[in-house]
Each structure stands twice: as C-alpha cells, then as structure tokens.
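Why this split exists: single-chain examples teach little about how molecules sit against one another. For that reason, every record in the complexes split bundles all components of an assembly together and asks for one structure covering all of them. Below is a record exactly as it appears in the raw files.
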Amino acid sequence: MFIKDLILTNFRNYEKEKLQFAPGICIVQGANGQGKSNLLEAIYCLCFGRSFKNYKDSDLVKWERPFYFIQGTVVLQKHPYKMEVGFETGKRRKVVKVNGKVDKKFSLEGNFPVVFFVPEDLEMIRRGPEERRRFIDREICQISALYRDYLIRYNRIIAQKNKILKENIQKKELREMLHVWNRQIVHFGSRIIKIRNEMISIWSSLASRNYACLFQESQLLSISYENCLGIKEITTDIEEIEKTFQNEIKKTEEEEMRRGYSLLGPHREDLLFLLDGREARRFASHGQQRSAIISLKAAQIQFFNDKKEKPLFILDDLFSELDEFRMEQCFSLFKGAEQVFITITRKDNYLEPFLEKFSDFSFFHVSEGKVMELKENGKSRTFC
Amino acid sequence: MLFSPAITRLVDVFRRLPGIGPKTALRLVFFVLSMEKEEVEEMARALVDAKRRVKHCARCRNLTEQDICSVCRDERRDQSLLCVVQEPRDMMVIEKTGQFKGLYFILHGALSPVEGFGPEELKIPDLLQLMKTGGVKEVIIATNPNVEGDATAFYIAGAARPLGIMVSRIGFGLPVGGDLEYADELTMTRALEGRREI
Ligand SMILES: Nc1ncnc2c1ncn2[C@@H]1O[C@H](COP(=O)(O)OP(=O)(O)O)[C@@H](O)[C@H]1O
Ligand SMILES: [Mg+2]
Ligand SMILES: [Zn+2]
C-alpha cells in the first residue's frame, strides 16, 4: 500500500499543501518545529480517519481556522481509494469519505497495513500500564477491524458497569444488573484476550530475535502478556478462555461491589518487557529500553513480511538517536515495505550510503508548513 | 442585543428539539414569524393538544389517546406472543412487515446506567407483571443490537425464564442464552461488508 497524493488544508501548521508521493522511501527533512511530524500525522489521519494519539479533532485544526480538510489517494492492492477527512470546529462536524461516499463506521480501519512509529513509543516501558495498553490497542486495531469492534463495545460495557457499581442499589438487584454486564464482559473480553495473546506472542518472538541479531544486544528480550486471568499459557480455544474468565469474574464480584469499580478484564492488563527475565522498567538502561522498543517495532514490520500486501511505514524521528549500525539494520527492514515515510533533521547526506541499496527514494524538505520535493540534479543532492 | 427577547426565547425553545442547532432554530423562527397568525395558533394548539391527549398505553406503553391502544384492543392478535421493542418507531417498522401477529411492549429506551436508564425507568416491572398475568407464552426481544440492547435482552430473558416463558431475540436469530458465537459471525460479516462498500 502507498500514498499517491495528499492535499492538506488548515491542518496543524499547514495552510494549503498539495503533494505527490511515489512508492519507495520518502525522506522528510526539516529543522525542529517545521511540520514534519504534522505531515506524518496527516498521512495517518488520511488512512484511519483520526489521529493516532488522543488528539481531539479540534487540536488538528490550524489555529484560528474554522476547519481542517485532508484529501488524498491511498493505493491498496493496486486500487486507488480517494480518502477525505474533515472537521468543522463550529459545527463539531466530522466527515470521513471513501471514494466520495460517507464512511460512518471508518470501515477501512483494520484493512490498511500500516506500521507507525512515534518517539513517544520509546517512553512506553517507563510509563504506566495504560500507556502500554493504548499501544497494544492502537497496533492491533490497525490490523484487525474485528478487534476494534470488540474493543469499542467492551469499553462501553465497562463504563456502564462502573456506573452501576457506583450507584446505591440494593445488593440483590445489583447482582442481577452486574450479571447482564459481566456476561458481555466475558464474551467480548475473552475475544480481546485471545487476539491480544496471539499478536503479542508473534511480536515477542520476533522482537527477541531482533534484539539479539539485529541490535546485537547480549541479553534475552522477552515481551510478556500480563493477562487479567493470570494464565501462563492462554489457549486458542475461546470457550476455554470464556470459562476461566467467567469463574474469575464471579470470584471478583464481592470485591468489585465493595470497591465500586470493575477490577477484572482486558482494561487492567499490561505488557511486560523482560531482559534475561528481569523487568526492563526497573533494571534496564535507557539504551537497552530503546533497543527493546525498536525491536518490537521491527517485529511489527516483519509481521507483514508474509502478508500479500506490502505495508506502509510511517516512522517519525526513528533515526535521531541511532548509531550507524542500528540505522543500517533498520534500513534492511524497509525492503518489506511498499512505501516508507521517515523524518530526519540533519541536512547532510548521511543517509546516502543506506539509500544506495534502494532504487526508489525521494526527498522532501519541510519549512514553516511548506513542503518542497527535492529532485535529484546531477549526482549530488543538497538540502538548502 | 440583535434580536428581540421574544425571538431569542423562541430560538431557545426550538434548540431544545433534537438535531436543531442555533442556525436552524433561527431559520425556523423567521419562518414562523412569516406565517399567518391563524396558522401559528393552529400549530401551537396542535403541540399542546398532542401533549395533553397522547399518553402511554396502560398495557404496552405504545403512544395512544386511549387508556389501551388499538393494537392491544385488537382481539385477532395473539395474546400469548409478545414483542419487546425499544422505541415506538421500532414497533412501526415491525408492524409494516405485517408478519407479526402478537402484541408489543415498548421500553422507551434500553438499560444504560450511564444515561440513568434502569429497570424502573424502562418499566420492566410492568413488563414482568404482564408476562405473569397476561397469558404470555413467548417473548421476542427486538432491542437494538448494541451493548445496551443486549444487556436489556439478557435482563428480560433472565427474569422471564423462571416464568417458563420462551424467549428469543430477533436481529440475531439466536435464542438468548444460546450460542453467541453466531453474533461473532455477524460482526465479522459487517466488517466484511464494510470492506466491500469501498
Ligand atoms: N493546530 C495547530 N495550528 C497551527 N500550528 C500548529 C498546530 N499544532 C501544532 N502546530 C505547530 O506545528 C509545529 C510543530 O510541528 P511538528 O510537525 O511537530 O514539527 P517537527 O518538524 O519538529 O516534527 C509547532 O511549531 C507548532 O506550533
Ligand atoms: Mg517532530
Ligand atoms: Zn397497547
């Protein structure tokens, strides 16, 4: 999949930009604060109809402007999809269109093979569990529309359940009410657990290989899924998971009623990074944590290797703290992509040696919300 | 102040209606002011009149001007078959198919603690009373296929089961308490359909 063209209107610090892209590696260069990340965010919005973090649509509108509008063509399996994403601040109206038709359900989410990296991902190990859950959900939602559907329903159910747990109702009645919500928690929660487990174990085995081979780190990295059921090996049998979940939730009921909020389920899970069996959060150095996260990102990239459609990578600031060896390893992963957007701040040609192995690459220079493609003139390419 | 107090007041009134923002409200106000006086009076009377006369049917909570609505009074209908819906418009949709010959019960909502809808608000105790004493043998639950609709269905099913009443759920074609795996396929199908739409 790749992005063919993009028109930004009043998006972040862009007023009006029309851009053309080709498959291959697209290097986006510019000094800090010029709009590189914003451009990558716009590409993400084009694919998914919303921003990747918890940004509100009103944050994306250029200051003092009434709306933002992103248009562009995404090419998936050789079919062009005309995407439009817009938001009007005054009317608080959001519109997503695919090929001119309003797409209320964001049905494309989960169908576009995209891997996205933001510098904030690097902080993940040290941050709280909700950050890691958000990461898991964001990543799986991108590749599974079904998972996204489960998650939306699940979160709604949890909100409803927490509300009744806070209400002052008689115990017998409360039990009856809990039952109807718990039943759905078990249903959707088990499916969420099953998918999380499958994805995380794929990521974990690829990531630990990357950590050792790609980054030549000496410890053994493992990424462990701290599931809410406390099971070491989760079965692939959904009924089995449901049964365990049902038993556990029954056991927690009294305490939930006492504490006044729901205590068990995928909304309380975590992802644990271990180096030689020790928690990376507590014992690993900053550099080791970086390598662990990039190994995981690389795993997500490799996940697409045996898929039919070559993915799109959107990588913001990945290179800023990598040494040459690691950079080279990262470039070797790009072979599996149809298109890669990557931002850099340096002006010189330090990427030249890596790019030699690729036939298709292009350069874009970003300055104060303006993007300029730098065409190759003669043999050397300069940023100015 | 751009508009007179009377206009501002009327704008505020229109804005209370669903789907009406400030701009539309103002347009409606201008339109009302351009109408004949008699016409406006007729409109105001119709509003008050409807509100005064229309109430919930004492049996099924359908909107009616009688104590018991015409559907409930229709003796050709099957008293032993009861369809539970969320809104009056859901009942209309089912009525239009002409396929359903039983009676209805309208909840005017679904269980949603967040929005303050519990069993009392939905008059589920009345529904249970009807099941106990109204000769109901089979209940079809046609609440919306979302988490609130499902919760409502489970709740009603749980209360109906001890009464020996057969409960089923339409929209899914599966009996409540049965194999929910089928709902998964539905979700899947929906996702796939979404994919085909593009
Ligand atoms: N909604 C917005 N409207 C206008 N400017 C914005 C908006 N959001 C962010 N910016 C500006 O965009 C710039 C940051 O751009 P960014 O893409 O993050 O830079 P970088 O090139 O370093 O990645 C900042 O100067 C910020 O002030
Ligand atoms: Mg940036
Ligand atoms: Zn009636």
